[in-house]
Amino acid sequence: MNPELVINHQFPEVSHTYTERDVALYALGIGACAKDALDDKELKYVYHEDGQQSIKVFPTFAALFSIGLTSQLSALPGFTFDPRLLLHGQQYIEIYKPLPSNCVLQNKSSIVGLHDKGKATILDIEVVSYEKETGKRLCMNRTTVYLRGAGGFSKSSEPYSFSKYPKNQTSSKIPKTRPFVVHEECTQPAQALLYRLSGDYNPLHSDPKIAEVAGFSRPILHGLCTLGFAVRAIIRTICNGNANLVKAISGRFLLHVYPGETLITEMWLEGSRVLYQTKVKERNRAVLAGFVDLNHLRSSSL
After folding, report:
1. For residue range 3-20, what is the model confidence (pLDDT) as tens digits?
2. Catalytic one among 93, 122, 200, 251?
3. 98, 158, 210, 291: which one has the fewest Cβ atoms less than 10 Å from its Cβ?
4. Cα dihedral sign for 167, 225, 302, 177?
5. Burial level of 89, CB count in 10 A (0-12/13-18/19+)?
6. Cβ 104 vs Cβ 76: under 8 Å
7. Average pLDDT of the chain to the nearest whole number
8. 223 is annotated as an active-site residue
């Protein structure tokens, strides 16, 4: 494999269309209104008195725009990997303006990171989404994937490593101090079956036999669904339900979640950045960590 050909590969632009129904279904998939169908902080994401075209959109809905990256990676020149061995390591999202309830997007993808780890390759893929009608940027996704069994392509003694961005841009360290806020919420046994309707039909999240082959006792929850739960907890508690405060989201996937388990999200405030860590209560294990950057945080929001 020639690394230069991979990082300079031009992906074709892809159109993506979503509607108010997709927005509402996603909100339900990450647990909105699961406890209270009249919740005034979350009902606006699934219903609006002025009609469905007026419903609000969770910022993590933007993560759906990067679904389908795996099929695009198969077009990389001289690059082969087993998609069954792909692990989703991290997701970073920037929101440039509030997402409309329905839209036709134009997605532009590029490789912004390539690292030879010997037994694996790490790829960073960036997807910038534009409103097709106006050409305005809406958001950006940067997805980090670990491709097991695809490493060892470096021809020199020094392993190949390329990154368009500083390594610490999306990293964060969880404080050892007491959290500012703690939010606890139980996922539903059918959570993965509901979330998959937003477009991620990987059988690992629905087929018991596939999950068993992968080493799990039963199907697991999508990592992006767990991210949605965590960011929704931050919007609910720190932002008082105002999703427009969210500017950037970073999530590092640490461990799987089984549908039906309880998620405990701990949050710390550092200026306009919310550091967070999500644990599974039943196993007392951290499953997700990262940060959410806010546009502006007023004391009245707390």
Report:
1. 889 998 989 999 999 999
2. 200
3. 158
4. negative
5. middle
6. no
7. 92
8. yes
